[in-house]
Amino acid sequence: WSRDLGYPASPESRMDYSPYIRTIVSVELNRPFAAVTPTLDGDALMVLAVTDRPMTAPVVAAVAGSGSEAGMRKALRRLTAQGLVIRERTGHHDSYVLNRAHLLAAAIDMIAQSRVALRERLAKTVSHWDPAPTFVSLFGSAAHGVMKADSDVDVLVVRPDTVDVEDPMWVDQLIQLATAGRLWTGNDLRILELTEEQTRSALADGEKVMVDIATHGYRIFGDMPSRRTPAPQ
């Protein structure tokens, strides 16, 4: 790695440490099966993986939010033929449920839980940092569940005021996190780095990104610095 990380003039600016070292298939964490199959089969598996309740094709299509009922019915029939899905006849309707006894069921569950796995990996990684961060949060599309293939994984990292911006150990941790995030998902992991004081100021000023993180972000580590209390008049 080059020691020159190209810090922007303003510490509030988003910093990009992600190395473009290879081409990796990116993951839409809300549609993780798209990384292995672009068809409706993946969307059907995503829906069935998170429930044990039998569903009809129209219900699966509605929950998945993709494809037509006819297209989803064909996908479910293909999955049934492969043994991954069990079809149950109820009256005049066919219902479908994931076959959890299938040899591939564990792998399907693992793919379906990709968002949880990312959060766990982030938490495990930053929990071993020294110097430790004050607060780490996942935000943006990865936290909201609306990622696309070209979306970034946005992470807020609050640096303790006692840690210098160019502390080599701190900088190395940021680089390693961005590198690991790229390898984990295929998406660029973008770090928004702020000090504790900058975080308090941004919250006090109601900056849009900070309001989003405070209300919709997913806490990974630590506690967000509290809003700065205005001085008494």
In brief, what are we looking at here?
With 233 residues, the chain is α+β, with helices and mostly antiparallel strands. 39% of the residues lie in helices and 16% in strands. Strand 2 (85-90) and strand 3 form a beta hairpin.
Looking at this protein, list some descriptive labels.
233 residues; alpha+beta; 4-stranded mixed sheet; 16% strand; disordered N terminus
Q: How does this structure look, described?
A:
The chain has helices spanning 40-49, 57-64, 69-81, 105-112, 114-126, 141-144, 168-185, 196-204, 208-216; strands at 55-56, 85-90, 93-98, 135-139, 153-159, 189-195, 218-222. The protein has 233 residues and is of the alpha+beta class. The strands form two sheets. Strands 6-5-4-7 form a four-stranded mixed sheet, with helices on both faces. Helix 5 (114-126) packs antiparallel against helix 7 (168-185). Residues 1-25 have low confidence and may be disordered.
